[in-house]
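As agreed, record passed on underneath.
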Amino acid sequence: MGVVLHFRELGLYAPRILVTFSAVPQETLLVIPCYRERDRLPRFLPRLVESLDHSRLPVKVLIVDDGSGEEQQAWLKLWVGDLQRRYPILLPPICNPVNQGKGAAVYTGWNTADETTAWVGFVDADGAISPEEVLRVIRQYSDAQEGAVWAVRTGEEDTQVRRMFKRKVSGSVFRKLVARLFHFPVPDTQCGFKLVRTEAYRKIAPQLTEMHYCFDIDLTFHLLQAGQQIAAVPISWEESPDSRLGTDSVLAMLRSVLGLKRRLGNWSDRA
């Protein structure tokens, strides 16, 4: 609420003037989940915080390390501390003592949001999504009416998606499987950039149980189940040359999504 001052009531001889102090601007808290990212994070984070800092948008960036070990976490604290001196939008990192999964790292960060935080989000540390694209989406959708914004790799609206053939095939198969099992109204649940209204997240947070490869599917399901709309935003994406998505990861994702289907069912069948 604004504060109104009447100068005559303060004993000052002046025309009646109203001075209104607006509420504190609401912010976006952008989490970057990390696991042993000493090589990739320095190529991405400085460019990201520089772009966001120059934009003057009310965005804070928080690194959450998912149990990378004492040596990596010690390096992270020192390196981020040095970067903070140049970019105050960068918060002190959170280092989880043990590895719990990407979803756990994202939610650890989101749970720190305060009452001024309108949106919580995350972006992957590998730099597959450029700082310019992150900035574009935040700026364009900061006033969105939807409860969430999902970046999607569809190649629409003049966006470009570059990936190796093997990953292109595996990604296509996985998306078709998710579509067949869940019938979500978004074409891509796994792209590593998402924004959620803080209020919407807090309402479903106790129901979120998947913390590993398919936490995005669990999150999508419960947002839709709660009646939230999700805006699907085409985004340019370029695969990181040192991508960690191997055969074992793909098989683990398949097992995880089938397990989620057994536990959750189909959101459109729920009241």
User: Anything to note?
Assistant: The longest strand covers residues 27-34.
